Structure formats: structure tokens, C-alpha cells
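ATP-dependent DNA helicase RecQ, Pseudomonas saxonica. C-alpha cells?
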Amino acid sequence: MYNTLEQVFGFTQFRAGQEAVVSAVLAGRSAAAIFPTGSGKSLCYQLSALMLPHLTLVVSPLLALMQDQLAFLQRHGIAAASIDSAQSREEASAVMAKAKAGELKILMISVERLKNERFRNFLQQVPISLLVVDEAHCISEWGHNFRPDYLKLPDYQRQFNIPQALLLTATATPNVIADMQTKFAIDEADVITTGFYRANLNLWVEPVTGAAKRARLVQWMGERRGQPSIVYVTLQKTAEQIAEHLSQHGISANAYHAGMPHDQRENIQRQFMEGRLNCIVATIAFGMGIDKSDIRNVVHFDLPKSIENYSQEIGRAGRDGQPSDCLVLANRDSLNVLENFVYGDTPELQGIRYVLDELSAAIPEGQWEFMLLPLSDKSNIRQLPLKTLLVQLELRGLIAPRYAYFAEYRFKFLIEPEALLARFEGERQQFVSAIIQTSTRARTWATVNFDTLYNQHQADRNRVVKALDYFQEKGWIELESKQMTEVYSLLVSQFDAEALSLELHQYFTAHERGEIVRIHAMLALFSSETCLSYRLAQYFGDEQAPQQCGHCSVCAGQVAQLPEPPPLTPLVDKNFESLCGAFIHRHQEYTASYPPAERLTRFLCGISVPMFTKMKARAIAGFASLENYPYADVRRWVEQHSRG
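C-alpha cells:
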């Protein structure tokens, strides 16, 4: 272990916690590493992977995070690869072929990849030593970045016979840690926590009115010109505006957000990593796993989404141990925007009922097949909460995922069909011939007809997909697949859809309240009268931090009183008909019904849901006209005036 640490990674000793984690894994036990951002969590799986006999499978939530870690591994001569959505099918096939041949030690994927039929077939054929879950707090509903698909990871571990798991995160509260431990059966002794206090981070919270924020940012960045810095904002358009504003004031800055083309984002990130660009104005799409050690400043121009997000984002500063400044330009102006993100993820009661009726209609079939996007559109539930709803139905024992498949496979011959047939003989040749004959030919592409293959030739779908993959691997065909279809088994013969709709709606509403409480906990932290570093460490259950750090705004005698947002015209003075009339009219045309109060509230607060995209709601007069008002106030006002 020590030899590998020095010879491969060039370190003569471990950092705090690393040795305990690696030792647990090498002794054959599952473990969790809960270290602050920048404390070397990645090394725990990288070193273990080199010493374990088979492949290490790493599940990571973000492409940027994977690419960063891959670059590091490749620099150190470690055989690692990823399969991600940016790759072509050929590239993904090449990676799988390497893994099958035993030429890879580490394979990085997103959790969604595990629903892919081809990928699951591939995993059944490859021995795996270790499942690594990066950003493992995503597995907990108590966590700040819950990913419903992460709940299935313990099942996947069993399904693919992976003997042990290693969970990595920087931001887990005591509740989340308990959740992770239970789900992966990790002994308490193998949960290694090194504390959250970072002595080199100076935490400043400065109360600034919305009108004065830009000038203060220019002043702050001007004093630190040339230092690597990240400025965090909530919205993509703000990222563009602030980057432009800084550039106009002589501070070279670039925007970075998920709405930009992939190549452009990559280029900006590369410039920042190489020190050719020193200031990035970013939404939280930027920074996950960014391994740049000399970031000197992290500024929150807008409020972060939660204490966990704040901790994760400031954790990108000062990884080299040198003093670094973390500034929050704090006021309550963007509070409603943050809250609106939360409210937009709560499904309407009618939407939940629609999904349950679809499920109910499938009971006679014994299985439920659907595509996520059309179901999201028809139920008017965003995709992430829809996935959460499906997981809740699983947890309540109504459904169990069987598999997901691409509804359509099509292929293009790269060699003559006769030449392809000639490569096989006997029963195999008949099977290949059946695939070719039953596929519907257009000019260049042939679409596979699974039903005919099964009915006329008893050809099992799984065998057909494996054969097509093999043909592609050999370079005989080019293969394309689309329309991901989810297939669930139905575990009940009947249920009370009305009662369950209400129960699930209450679950989502409780989650909504919890998220709003989380936002207000963050405001309480920023206006705290006790040391910020201490309060932050306490939130994550770390009792070791000093009670007075001496390097935060509170310790410097500046308790932040957050200014209130500018006063708004009372809602009583607003005209319901002029704000909602056009939308109500369009809604009645579109659905033949009056919009429910929840939908009207979302329209006025500018919260996008699938139906609004279809109706082009953004272009209707009144959209987002009350986005600066608290959502709950707008909902009460709508309920008083609407007849829905």
C-alpha cells in the first residue's frame, strides 16, 4: 500500500483518514469516506483499485467530475476510462471491449447508465471488485442533492455480485451518514469522518443591498486581480450578465453554465485549470470535483441553495492549504427565486393521480411499460420529481423495475449482408438470417422487428441485442438505439388510487417544507452571532472545530444583518384578470378546463413545468409577473380570486 502510494502517486504519507479507508477496503469491507472538499477522497478509491484484482466501477453524478478525475488517472499511468453521454456508440463499445479484456482498472459511469440494457448485459460478463459511489450524499432523501436513481445502487451491487462498496462525500449531515450506512451495510467503525473545519478558509458574510452588489463585487475582485476566483450565481442569465459587467470593469471573466454548448464549457474550464483565465462566473454546474488547488476566492453573488451547497462550493477554495477568501454578498433579494425552484418540483395532485391511473391500467398486463418524457408531459410533472415518484412507488411495494430498453434499434450494413451471413454457420447462421430478413429496410437503415423475431423464430430479445452489439464490435454494422422505455413489474392486483395520490402528495409537500426550512437554516447561518466556521462544522456533526476560528466575519466583530428586499406593491392592488386572463384562455383552449390554483401560481411565479413548455407559456402575457413575491403569498392570492 505504501509502495503504491509513493511509486504511482508520489506521496510519502497518507492524509488524515485515507489510510483507514484504504485499509478497510483492502481487508474486504465496505467503507465510507466523509472528508471535506479537497482532502483527498479520490485517492481512497484510486489506490484501492490498483490493489484489487478486478475492475473498480465508479458512479459519479457529473461529467465534468469524471473527466477531471480521468485526466488525473491517465497522467499517473492508471488504466481508466469512462462511458458517458458525450461519447459516440463506437467509443462506448471500445471502452467495454477493453474492460472485458481486463485492460481497465477503473471504469467511471453515471448512475443512469445502469438502466441501459446493453450496459447491464456487459456488466454481467465482467468481474467487479469494488463499487465506488462518488457524491454519495445523493443516495439520501435527507441529503441536499437527492438523486432518486441513487436509491437503487444497493440493489445493483447485489445484482452484479460486487462484493463491497466505498462511499465518498464531503457534505453529509449525521442523518445522511446514518442513511448511507444502513443502505450499504457499512460498520460504524468503517465510516471515516475527518471533520469539516478548514483552518485556511476565511469566511466573510457581507450584507449588501441588491442595488449595491455589482459595485461591491467589482471592488472585491479588483483588489484580488489575477487570483484564481469563482463567482457563484443562481441563474444562467445572471452568469452572462455578471461576467460581462466584470469584463467591462477591466476584470477578465467568463460565464459558465449548463445552457452553454458542451465544447464551449470544456474550453472555458480548460483555460481556468491551466491558469489562462482567472475568473469564472458560474452556476453550480461548475466546480464539482474541480481539482485546481490554488483557487484563492469563492464569491457567492447570489445566495447558495443550502448550507450543504455553500460548504461544497467554498470547499473548492484553498485546496493547497494556503489562505483563501470566501465571501457571501448577502441579502434576501433572491430568496424567492431559490424557494421557487423548490415549489416547482412538487407535483400537482392531478399529476400524481394521472401516473397512478396509468399504472392501474397496466395491471391486467402484469407489467408497466412507459417512456419517461411522454409520461412527464402528460402528468405535468418534471422529470426529476417523476423519478422520485417512481422510486416511492417501488419503496411502497407496488412496482419493481425489471429493465429499461431502447424501443427502437436500427442498423446500417458496413459489409454486404451476404458477407455477414457467411461468417456464421448452422443454427447461428439461421438466427442471423432471421434478424436480417425480419428487419424493415429503409434506404440505408434497417429497423429491428423484435416482435416478429420472437413470434416467428422464438428469438429472445436479449440474444438479438447481444448479437447486434457483437456485429458492431466487429465493425460489420453501425448501430443506433433510441426511445428509452422503462419496464416495471406490477406487484399488486389493486390499490386505492385516491388515497395513495393524497399520501404521495403529502410526501412531496413535506419534502417541499423541508427544503424551505433548509433555505432558512442557511439564512440563519449567515446572520449568526456565533463563529461561522464553528456553526458550519456543528451542522455537519463535527464537534472538534474551535468555538472561535479567528478568521470569519463574526470573529472580526461583523455580525451580518441581512437587508430586506425592496418593498413590493401589495398583491391586493394587483388585477387578477389582467395578469391571468390570457393564460386562463389559452389553458381552456389547450385542456378544455380551467387551470387549478397551483398551476396559475406557477405561471405567475415563472416556474416552468412540462405543460408550460408545450403551451409556450413564457410568451403569454403575465408569465413570471409575480416572480419577486413569496410563492405562498401568491398561492393564497390566487386561491381568493380563481374559480379553479
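Residues 55 and 128 are 5 Å apart (CA to CA).
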